[in-house]
Amino acid sequence: MSEILVLGAGMVGVSTALALQERGATVTLMDRREPGLETTYGNAGIIQREAVEPYNIPHDLVTLFLYGIGRTNDISYRMGDLPQQLPALFTYYRNSGESNHRAISKIYEQLAIRVTDDHQPLIKAADADHLVRRNGFLTLCRTNKAFDEKQSEVARLTTNYDVPARMIDAKELALLEPALKANLAGAAFWTDSWSTSDPGALTAAYADLFKKRGGRFVKGNATTLRQTGSGWQAAGDDGLETASDVVIALGPWAPDILAPFGYRIMMVYKRGYHSHFAMDELPNRPIHDFANGVVYSPMQKGLRIATGAELVNRQAPENPKQLLHGLKAAREIMQVGEEFEGNRWFGNRPCMPDMLPLVGAATKHKGLWFHFGHGHQGLTQGPTTAHILADVMDGKRDALSDALAPQNRTAVCF
C-alpha cells in the first residue's frame, strides 16, 4: 500500500487508519476536530455483539399509526422535514419488509459475530481496558406482557442467529442492578455485548495508538478534497495533505463531500440526543428501556440518557422532547438526580436505506474509497468493517465485502 488519507476521525475513521497502518500503508488521518468528538461521541456506548438484525421500519399498521400520531418515543419527526427524506425513507421501508430484512440480517450477522474480537486487540494495545465493561447489557421489561413478548423475540434470535442471550426474572434483575428501585417484570440479558464508559475517550485512545505507531493526525477541512493528477489532496490547517488514495469515513457528512464528485448517496439521518445526570448509584451496565425508546448508560460523567431517532433536517434546532420523556421514564425506576450543566448533545446517525454500511471502492474515481453509513453501529462495527476495507484495498474480496461494496449498491449509491 502507498500513502492514504483518511477523512473522518470517529470510530470508523480511526479504525480505518489503524487497519491500513497494520497493512504497511503510510496513513494521515484528518478531521476538523479532535478524534472521537462527533457522532461517535454521542452514542449509548454499547459494542453490540447481539446486533444481528439492523433496525428496520415496522410494517404493521398499528405501530405506523402510533408513529404518525407521535405516541412513541423511539421515533419522532417533524412534518415539514419529511419531504426531503421521503425517497430514502421509502427505500428504507421497502427493505424493511420481512424477506428483504431477513436477507440483510444474514449479512449483518457476519459483522456482529466479529465485533468484540476485532475491538479486543485495539483495547489491549491502546491500554484502554479501564474504559470497557464486558458484562453485557439489558433490555428492560416493565410488564409481564412485555416480558413474554421479549422472551419470544430472544428465542427467535438465539434460534436463527449466533447471538448469546437469555431472559432474567425480576429477582435476578434486582441482584444484577440494585440501582433499579421499581418492581419490574425482568429483562433480556445480552450477555456477550460490551460497553464503554466514554465512547469519545475510547476512540481517542485508539487514535493515540495510531499516532504511537507512526501515524499522523491533522486537523483540516474535508470540503477541500480534490483529485489531482497523481491522487488526492485536502487542505489541512498547516498546509495541503496529499495521498494516492483517500478514504471517506465521514458518517453523516459523507454525502455532502461526495456530491461534487457526482455521487448521490441516499441516507436517512436519525438524530439522537443525550445528556448526563447525577446519580449516587449508577447501573452496572447499559439498560435499554425499549418501552420508552431510551438507553440508560453508566458513564464517567454520570448517567447518560440516550434517545432513539428523530427524523429531521440536519440543520433543525434542538428539540429535547425525547430526552425529557426519557428522563421522566428513568425517574420512575431509578433515583436520578439533576442534569449536569452543559452536557446536552445531539447528532445525526448515518443510516443507509438498505441498512448496510458502504465499504469499498468508489465507482467513478480511482483511489477513492467509501467507509460510512453504519447507522447506529459505527462504534460497534468500526474495527470490523475497517478490516474488510483494508482487505479490499489489498485486492482481497469475498461474499461479505461484495455485499457491502458500492458497485453492488446502486439503489442507494449512484
Features:
eight-stranded mixed beta sheet, 12 helices, ten-stranded mixed beta sheet, alpha/beta, globular
Written description of the protein model:
The strands form three sheets. Strands 4, 6, 7, 8, 14, 15, 16, 17, 18 and 19 form a ten-stranded mixed sheet that branches. The chain has twelve helices and 21 strands. The relative contact order is 0.20. It is of the alpha/beta class and 414 residues long. Helix 1 (11-22) packs parallel to helix 8, helix 1 runs parallel beside helix 11 and helix 5 crosses helix 11 (378-393).
Architecture blueprint of SSEs:
Blueprint: E1 3-7, H1 11-22, E2 26-31, E3 46-47, H2 61-68, E4 75-77, H3 86-95, H4 98-112, H5 115-125, E5 132-133, E6 137-141, H6 144-160, E7 166-169, H7 170-176, E8 186-190, E9 194-196, H8 199-212, E10 216-227, E11 232-236, E12 239-243, E13 245-248, H9 254-258, E14 268-277, E15 287-289, E16 294-299, E17 302-307, E18 309-311, H10 321-331, E19 345-351, E20 358-361, E21 368-372, H11 378-393, H12 399-404
Parallel strand pairs: 1-2, 1-13, 2-10, 4-18, 6-15, 13-21
Antiparallel strand pairs: 3-9, 5-9, 6-8, 7-8, 10-11, 11-12, 14-17, 14-18, 14-19, 15-16, 16-17, 20-21
Helix pairs in contact: 1-8, 1-11, 5-11
